[in-house]
Amino acid sequence: MSDHIPEPPEVAREVFTGDAWVRAQAFAELLAGPGVVRGLIGPREVPRLWDRHLLNCAVVAEVVRPDVRLVDIGSGAGLPGLVLAIVRPDITVTLLEPLLRRTVFLEECVESLRLGNVEVLRGRAEEFAGRREFDVASARAVAPLGRLLKWSLPLLREGGELLAMKGERAAEELADAKEQLHTSDVRTAELASVGHGKVEPPATLIRVVAGRAPTGARKASGRKDRASRSKREASG
Question: Can you tell me the distance from the alpha carbon of 43 to that of 216, in angstroms, rounded to the nearest whole number?
Fold first, then answer.
């Protein structure tokens, strides 16, 4: 491994097993190399790639059901989506990211790591409302919960879940979004803690179970986004 990347902690071998172990090490190299050069992660993050990023994302898999279709909103450097795809080959992962330089990096990672359960999709969540449907949406350091609800719920099937990775402000964000949660017809919204004994502190998630999204809103959103794309294409 690179001299700049610390040795992975022993617990990493418990979390990343089989082929996932080799892929996790290779992904760490990609993050520490091209990921830093292209500005996807800061150089100061390299010494804590394992504990703060790879392991912190991997433990989210504890609450992901088998064989689901997961969309990682604002995937950035592939955290947590690409990590979840590595540790859970049974799930199908869509890395949704609007910025070209990031999607190019993600596509290179998928090819290099030979991940057959991943697709990279360039665009914003709003553009795919009513066009794509998923069982789970994940997000890490993308936006406050209120905005995440607006972006993720139209992408989720009825009963689908938003898993928003949050830190110490999780409870505050949940409280701030109380009114929006009530008007968004969600079934439940709660805090969840994962990674006990594997990461310190354990990772905190806001877990939202979606109700039925208004069909009219989905259709209207789809028409608006198609019109917007046509306008962009016409303007060259």
Answer: 45
Q: What's the predicted TM-score (pTM) here?
A: 0.87
Task: State the DSSP string of 41-59.
Answer: S-GGGGGGIIIIIIHHHHG
pLDDT tens digits for 122-156?
A: 999 999 999 999 999 999 989 999 999 999 999 99
**Amino acid occupying residue 135:** D
> φ and ψ at 166, to 5 degrees?
-130, 155
Residue 2 per-residue DSSP state: -
Q: Order of strands across the sheet with 118-122?
A: 118-122, 92-97, 69-73, 134-140, 156-166, 203-210, 186-194
Q: How confident is the model at residue 213 (pLDDT cuts 50, 70, 90)?
A: low
CB neighbours of residue 15 within 10 Å: 23
Q: Measuring CA to CA, which residue among 6, 115, 95, 103 is closest to residue 53?
A: 6
Q: Which has more confidence, 34 or 233?
A: 34
Stretch (H or E) spanning 82:
helix 81-87
Sequence-distant (≥ 6) Cβ neighbours of residue 170 within 8 angstroms = 191, 204, 205, 206
* Distance between CA atoms of residues 112 and 35, nearest Å: 14
Q: Which two tokens stand for residue 48?
A: 């804590």
208 HSE (CA, 13 A, CB side): 33
Q: What totals of helices (H) and strands (E) does the chain contain, helices first? A: 10, 7
139: which 2 tokens? 């997000």
